[in-house]
């Protein structure tokens, strides 16, 4: 019985900790927003539910389609700068994105050090 009590004590202590210790960052909003069409952006922003660890958070951006080009091969966008300030991840592009469809994959790390990932698509007109 005593052994069971010794094993149960750490589990009960973990349950008593605040829920925030087990939270993960969630994407609350973004610009451009998922499944929207925007005019040639030069900056992208993603806002999360928790403060980010900047060096461990970022994006991958791929152009997946271009007007007038059937069977456009996916083309990674390079040369952008990413900065995290608080809960906001800002991506500064070297130039405005050309017209086409894009897939944005993000990864975010908050104080709990767990990497959370997601993705969404948008269009530039």
Automatic annotation (TrEMBL):
- The positions making up the signal sequence are 1-23
Q: Which residues form the CopC domain?
A: 24-124
- Keyword terms, alphabetized: Copper, Periplasm, Signal
Mind telling me which InterPro entries this protein's record contains? CopC-like, CopC_dom, Cu-Rt/internalin_Ig-like, Ig_E-set
Gene3D superfamilies the UniProt entry points to: 2.60.40.1220
Query: Where does it live in the cell?
Result: Periplasm
Q: Where does this protein chiefly localize? A: periplasm
Query: What family does this chain come from, according to its entry?
Result: Belongs to the CopC family.
Give the protein's recorded name: Copper homeostasis periplasmic binding protein CopC
The scientific name of the source species is Novosphingobium jiangmenense
């Amino acid at each position: 019985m005593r052994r069971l009590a010794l094993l149960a004590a750490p589990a009960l202590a973990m349950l008593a900790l605040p829920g925030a210790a087990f939270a993960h960052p969630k994407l609350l909003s973004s610009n451009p927003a998922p499944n929207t069409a925007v005019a040639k952006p030069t900056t992208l922003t993603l806002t999360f539910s928790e403060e980010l660890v900047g060096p461990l958070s970022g994006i991958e951006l791929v152009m997946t389609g271009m007007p007038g080009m059937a069977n456009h091969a996916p083309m990674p966008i390079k040369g952008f700068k990413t900065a995290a300030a608080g809960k906001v991840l800002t991506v500064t592009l070297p130039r405005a994105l050309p017209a086409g469809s894009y897939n944005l994959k993000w990864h975010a790390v908050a104080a709990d050090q767990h990497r959370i990932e997601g993705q969404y698509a948008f269009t530039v007109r």
